[in-house]
């Protein structure tokens, strides 16, 4: 197993929770996916490492083993990762991991084994869509300009001049090569033709043997109310165009920016509200901003610091059900950093007016002192 740190690969801390691990994986997988980095072996290698890291860190048992014993512990348990395996051989494994996070269809990317044998790219594609906090909450219209692939007309998408291919000399057109070790024979995907059985006889100069060219398109997309980071929005027939003329779908992978004051957790909205300490005993009512206006919070005289108050149906509309979440207000009791002479006199007078109630510690301490004396008698 190749030596690299899973936490460093995903750029997360060792105490990251499941949501943080998944979010980091989404970002890295999108960045290094082979369909977005054609013919880039370094990106392909990073994609394997990112998936291997997620496969371990998203599994509580594997993660615990890795945290305690490192990769040696994983190897002893029988897990070998993806190291040393050909990319085509493990692509289905990577696709299943990718699907588990992005949903069916590999987050808009198709497995290479499911596309036509002479296609150089998947027809479905995905791009990341960054939304402001309020755009995700209330929905909006976005104008997007993006780049998609079309088959090269000169080589008909084959990457070969005139569309002429030849049998792969390494595997003799079988797409696999065989190795014998003792009495055992092993097969693996041909590294030269990547399992296609054919290679380019004479590279197409029009597309540099890629088999495709790119075009830009600008579209307007309706963003539904309540989308959140990680959601996918499917735009029908706006993906790459295949060699048969059919067009795939475009998937928008949503990433929502944070707000300076409101914090979102699923469909609930959290807001911390500073409250001056005198508000509590006076049971004052304060107006609190909500997503759609304001609500009134009447403070009880026993309110505590960091206490939470729930306002039902003041949160985000669920993108699937339309049911609205809650607004959760957490109070932060604020005390004066310093007081003047007049304020001190008033506070001392107030303190004295409470009598015994202003010194609750004294009764407790008297009991403790008596108990300590008994220890030495």
Average of per-residue pLDDT values: 82
Number of helices: 8
Beta percentage is 25-35%
Shape: elongated
Give the count of structural domains. 4
Distance between the termini: 68 Å
Fraction in helix: 25-40%
The CATH architecture classification of the largest domain is Orthogonal Bundle
Regions with little confidence, pLDDT below 50 for 5+ residues: 82-97, 103-116
What spatial order of strands do you see in the largest sheet?
10-11-15-14
Q: Spell the H/E element sequence.
A: HHHHHEHEEEEEEEEEEEEEEHH
| Helix/strand/pairing category | alpha+beta
Describe the 3D structure:
Helix 2 runs antiparallel to helix 3. The longest helix is centred in the first third of the chain and has 17 residues, at 41-57. This protein has helices spanning 6-10, 18-32, 41-57, 60-76, 87-102, 133-138, 341-353, 360-375, and strands at residues 125-131, 140-151, 165-167, 176-181, 184-189, 198-200, 212-223, 232-235, 250-256, 263-265, 268-276, 285-290, 293-298, 308-311, 327-334. The relative contact order is 0.09. The N and C termini lie far apart (68 Å). A hairpin with a 2-residue loop joins strand 10 and strand 11 (268-276). The chain has eight helices and 15 strands. The chain is elongated. The protein has four domains: 1-114, DnaJ domain (Helix Hairpins, Orthogonal Bundle); 115-164 and 201-257, HSP40/DNAj peptide-binding domain (Sandwich); 263-334, HSP40/DNAj peptide-binding domain, CATH 2.60.260.20; 341-375, no CATH class. The strands form six sheets. Strands 10-11-15-14 form a four-stranded mixed β-sheet, with no helix packed on it. Strands 1-9-8 form a three-stranded mixed β-sheet. It is of the alpha+beta class and 377 residues long.
């Amino acid at each position: 197993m190749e030596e690299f740190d899973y936490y460093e690969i995903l750029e997360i801390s060792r105490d990251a929770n499941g949501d943080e691990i998944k979010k980091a994986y989404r970002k890295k997988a999108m960045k290094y996916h082979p369909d977005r980095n054609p013919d880039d072996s370094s990106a392909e290698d990073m994609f394997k490492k990112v998936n291997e890291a997620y496969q371990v860190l998203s599994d509580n048992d594997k993660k615990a083993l890795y945290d305690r014993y490192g990769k040696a512990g994983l190897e002893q348990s029988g897990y070998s990762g993806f190291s040393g395996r050909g990319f085509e051989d493990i692509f289905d494994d990577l696709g299943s991991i990718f699907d588990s996070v992005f949903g069916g269809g590999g987050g808009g990317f198709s497995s290479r084994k499911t596309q036509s044998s002479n296609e150089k790219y998947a027809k479905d594609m995905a791009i990341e869509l960054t939304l402001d906090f309020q755009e995700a909450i209330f929905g909006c219209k976005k104008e997007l300009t993006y780049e998609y692939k079309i088959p090269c007309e000169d080589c008909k998408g084959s990457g070969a001049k005139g569309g002429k291919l030849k049998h792969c000399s390494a595997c003799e057109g079988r797409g696999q090569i065989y190795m014998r070790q003792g009495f055992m024979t092993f097969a693996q995907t041909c590294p030269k033709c990547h399992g296609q059985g054919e290679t380019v006889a004479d590279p197409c100069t029009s597309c540099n043997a890629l088999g495709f060219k790119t075009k830009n398109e600008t579209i307007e997309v309706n963003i539904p109310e309540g989308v959140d980071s990680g959601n996918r929005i499917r735009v029908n027939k706006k993906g790459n165009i295949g060699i048969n003329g059919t067009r795939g779908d475009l998937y928008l992978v949503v990433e929502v920016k944070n707000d300076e004051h409101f914090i979102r957790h699923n469909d609930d909205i959290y807001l911390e509200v500073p409250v001056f300490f005198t508000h509590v005993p006076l049971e004052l009512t304060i107006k609190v901003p909500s997503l759609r206006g304001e609500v009134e919070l009447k403070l009880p005289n026993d309110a505590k610091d960091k206490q939470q108050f729930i306002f039902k149906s003041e949160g985000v509309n669920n993108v699937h059900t339309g049911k609205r979440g809650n607004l959760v207000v957490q109070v932060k009791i604020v005390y004066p950093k310093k007081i003047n002479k007049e304020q001190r006199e008033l506070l001392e007078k107030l303190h004295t007016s409470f009598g015994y109630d202003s010194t609750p510690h004294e009764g407790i301490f008297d009991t403790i002192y008596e108990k300590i004396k008994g220890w030495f008698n």
